[in-house]
Amino acid sequence: MKFWDREKELADLKRYLQTEPNAILFVYGPKSSGKSTLLAKVAEDMGESYRFYWYDLRGKVISNYGDVLEVFFKERGWSKRFLEGLSKVLKFNVHVFELDVEELEKVLKKEYDAFEVMERELVGEAKRGRVPVIVFDEIQKLRDVYINGQRLLVSELFNFFVRITKVLHLAHVLVMTSDTFFIEEVYSSSALKNTSRYYLVDYFDDETALRILLDEGLPEEEARYVISRIGGVPWMMEEVVESEDPRATVEELYRDHRARLREFLGRVFEEGGKELQEKVKEVLKKMLEGEVVEIEGEDRKVVKKLVEAELLFYDPLEGSVRFQTKLDEKAARDLLT
Length: 337
Description:
alpha/beta; Rossmann fold; Arc Repressor Mutant, subunit A; 2 domains; six-stranded parallel sheet; two-stranded parallel ribbon; globular
C-alpha cells in the first residue's frame, strides 16, 4: 500500500517512541486503514538506535502455545538471508528472539520461561544502547490460545508487556488491531488500567483524499466522484489510481461490497435462523436512519458480529459505531430499504 500524507500520525508515533517506555500503545483502526504501512514507515525512519521485533500474525496458523513459541523464537542464525530479505522489503531491520539450540529446546519444552528469555534479550539490547520495540500486528489471533490448557496466553503476554513498559521502562510495545472488541476484552481481563494508551489510524477524510487523488493525476470531476462513493479508504484509492477507468473500478468495488453483505445475511440465516437475520437487519436499519445503536445493550451481540464481518467499525474509546466504508453503507441502503 502506498504511503500517503500521514505526516501528523508519523510525527506523533516517532515522538512517542522517543519518550521513555511507560505504556502499551494500541494502534487501532478500521481494516486496511494503513496501520501496518504507517508503522513500517515509522520503523524505517527511527534508524539503527532502535531494534524492532516485528510479529505479523496475519496468515499464521496458531492453535496452541507451541505455535506461538515458534513465532516468537528461532534457532540462532536460523536464516540471516531471510531476515535481510525481509528487511529490504520493509526497509528497516527486522529481528526475532534467537536462541542457541539447547536453549530453544528448553523453551519449547517449557523448561525455560519464555518471557524471562525475552526479557533477558531486551535488557541486553538496552545495555548496548538500542531501544527495543516489540510490534504485534493483528494480535487478536492469540485470543483463544492457552498455556498448559489453563491460563490464557493473551493475559500472560499483556502482563509481560506491562512489566517491560510500565514497570521496567525497558521496551516499547505497539499492538496493532482492527478487532476493536478485542481491545475491550483484553482491558477487562488484564491488569491494563493506567498502563495503556490508544492511537487511532483512520481512513483519510474526504478533503485529504481528494487532494491525494488530484496529486495522483485524476481530473477533479473524476476525483470528486470517486470520493463521493468510496471516501478515503487507502487501498480503494490505490485501486482507483492504478486503474484505466476510475468510475468502473468504483462500481466494481461496490458490487463486491453488496455481494459480501448479501452473503453475510445468508450466513447469519444459516447460523441463527430468521430471528437472528432480522435482528441484524434491524441494527443496520438503525444505522441507516441515524438512530442510536446500544453497544452495551441488546444490540451488542449483533454489532459485534457486524464488526467481525468488517461491515461496521466500533471505536471503543468513543463508544461509537459506524459503517466501515461508504460502500458498506450504500450496500445496506440498497438491500434493506
